[in-house]
Amino acid sequence: MKKVNITSIALLVYLIIMSVIGWPGNNPENGYTEYFCIIGATLAVILLLRFLQIKRLKMRGKINHPDDSSKTS
């Protein structure tokens, strides 16, 4: 399993645990909309981090292993 997948899974598990702990309860004054907006924003950040990690790995692969077409004989 790649490091990117492990990081993403760990962050999602952490989000689930913190969401369960922070559940506003039965009181409607606790703000369910704020609760779900924070969860959505956290999911967006996790997906953005995953996208950036994959992009960084691809760029690192291009730098470490340049194309054969760039070599001139």
From TrEMBL:
The chain crosses the membrane at residues 32-52. Keywords: Membrane, Transmembrane, Transmembrane helix. The keyword Transmembrane applies. This is LPXTG-motif cell wall anchor domain-containing protein. It comes from Parabacteroides chinchillae. The lineage of its organism: Bacteria, Pseudomonadati, Bacteroidota, Bacteroidia, Bacteroidales.
